């Protein structure tokens, strides 16, 4: 089965690995890369997405520029300390000479959903402002798409930005509340699975060997990111969070989910917390009357990383 997808992204090192994985997957048709601020400012996200398309020889894929600011609050504190000043590990890769598509990310999402009703899976691997805005532009969006999968959240484990919040949700908690409350069941691939599948840094060396172009780029760009994740650890390690929702489309049998009601915290202390009550675990209407979510809580990560390697090798 071929999955039509739109990847909403803030590329970023793990975004890059995920986007190349999608381009390499015969089961996936990427209709567009819609960019958002998050790891880096949105202008850099857009430029980096164009670069990824150039590297992959996919200049046919539209790249749009989206929201630059959170739904509420000041400009984000970007994650250059994780992804580098350029979002690609400071490897000074020459920027693309192409221009972004004139449509905004939210407009593109709505236009494609109307063009392909019931066929598109939205895959959001950055903060959720574009998805929230698309919902405001087209309130029927949940009925027009096949589904939505995100990398984000931390259902039953600590956060990675605060003790309770994961970066994509923390970066735009109000937008996330709009998205999770909409009339769809989000598939949430959070830290519950992505932080429990650490990658040995040799993984990017294997990607480079299997695919000198895209894997070779990842091998270079990921070194800064690996150094960040390896601080205060005895061994080097890396986490390619963003590829998980895409891998699920290719091999759903690698994942297990817990279904529950979800609430998003927007107060200062708990901003970005994704509080999931598994079905039947509470009688509080604060949860029983909230929208359902499918939170990924298990992954066969050996098979998952073999899938990444085999797909890069194609
Ligand atoms: O918490 C990890 C997420 O935040 C990933 O999407 C990474 O790219 C950053 O955006
Ligand atoms: Ca990301």
From TrEMBL:
One GO BP: purine nucleoside catabolic process
Gene3D superfamilies (UniProt xref): Ribonucleoside hydrolase-like
Highest taxon, organism lineage: Bacteria
GO molecular function, one term: purine nucleosidase activity
Inosine/uridine-preferring nucleoside hydrolase domain mapped to chain residues: 5-305
Pfam families from the UniProt entry: IU_nuc_hydro
GO cellular component, one term: cytosol
Keyword entries, A-Z: Glycosidase, Hydrolase
Protein's UniProt keywords contain Aminoacyl-tRNA synthetase: no
Protein name: Nucleoside hydrolase
Source organism per UniProt: Alteromonas lipolytica
